[in-house]
Amino acid sequence: MVNSMTAFGREESDSSLGHLVWEIRTVNHRYQEIAMRLPDELRSAEPDLRHLIASKIHRGRVDAILHYQVSDSINSGKSSLNYNEMCRLAKLESEALAAMPNAANLTVYEILRWPGVLGTSTVNFDELYTEVSELLTKALSRVLSARQREGKKLADLLLACLTEAKELIAKTESIWPQVQEDLRRRLDEKIANLDPKIEPNRLEQELILLLSKADIREEIDRLILHFGEVNRVLTKDGPVGRRLDFLMQELHREANTIGSKASHAKMTASSVDLKVVIEQMREQVQNVE
């Protein structure tokens, strides 16, 4: 199943620990790249949360942001003063005033804002991590669902382009005999103007050599094989974007060869039309996981 690399998922929850919101954005990228923004309470959990995301999303850039607001039940009525820290601060203030007698005394507001003076009850890390990881799993589920929906649309577009490319190849095959005749006639006209005349056997050898160099049937056979592989990969489970990207390069190379080998207006036009379709496919493939 084809998955897109572009999606967005958001999940939020309220509990006794506070309000949690996960926001996950994914965009196309050559490799897997995960960027996270977590509150200070969960910095130590980043490796585990990163691993959880990596196990679900295998390719693309992922921006995962967690918003956390501590509940009022934890913050209100549970603040306490750290008297040891206050005594240490008072001693520091006395020493500073002894060195600078004209300095102003600390205000109550400044004392309470001093790191370590006003202590608050801490959040239970294990409980918070459990809620955060469960909410992350739900948000990832939304993201994966969105990637699958868009991936299905991408697969439909690629299959439509593939059908068009097959039709162009069938058209190219149908006009190839006429192109061969035109090449033979043009060569005969050029040879007829040469003096002295070339031996018929030598002429036939040169003509066969020229037509064999211009023969595009090998390229057409390889294109048909690549088309079949693209069709197979589109029905395969797991990340297939890199495989499809490689196949697009091969298709483009074969289409280029067809245009350069057969120096004929009709073949050049067919090659250009085919490259346009392949380029459309390549652009869509850039967003496939």
| Count of DSSP strands | 6
What's the main sheet like? 4 strands, mixed
Element order: H for helix, E for strand: EEEHEHEHHEHHHHH
**Percent in strands:** 5-15%
Estimate the mean pLDDT confidence. 85
Number of helices: 9
How many separate domains make up the residues? 3
Question: Can you tell me the CATH class of the largest domain?
Answer: Mainly Alpha
Low-confidence stretches: none
CATH architecture of the largest domain: Up-down Bundle
> Could you tell me the radius of gyration in angstroms?
35 Å
Taken from the alpha-carbon principal axes, the silhouette is: elongated
Structural class: alpha+beta
How far from one another are the termini?
Answer: 10 Å
Topology:
Elements: E1 7-15, E2 18-27, E3 32-37, H1 46-56, E4 60-70, H2 72-75, E5 80-81, H3 83-99, H4 108-113, E6 118-119, H5 125-192, H6 200-214, H7 217-234, H8 241-261, H9 265-285
Your description of this structure?
This protein has 289 residues and is an alpha+beta fold. It has 3 domains: 7-74 and 124-148, 2-Layer Sandwich (Ribosomal Protein S5, domain 2), CATH 3.30.230; 80-119; 150-285, Up-down Bundle (Four Helix Bundle (Hemerythrin (Met), subunit A)). Helices cover 63% and strands 14% of the residues. It contains 9 helices and 6 strands. It has helices at residues 46-56, 72-75, 83-99, 108-113, 125-192, 200-214, 217-234, 241-261, 265-285, and strands at 7-15, 18-27, 32-37, 60-70, 80-81, 118-119. A 4-stranded mixed sheet has the order 1-2-4-3. Strands 5-6 form a two-stranded antiparallel sheet. Helix 5 (125-192) packs antiparallel against helix 7 and helix 5 (125-192) runs antiparallel to helix 9 (265-285). It is elongated, with a radius of gyration of 35 Å. The model has no long low-confidence stretch (mean pLDDT 85).
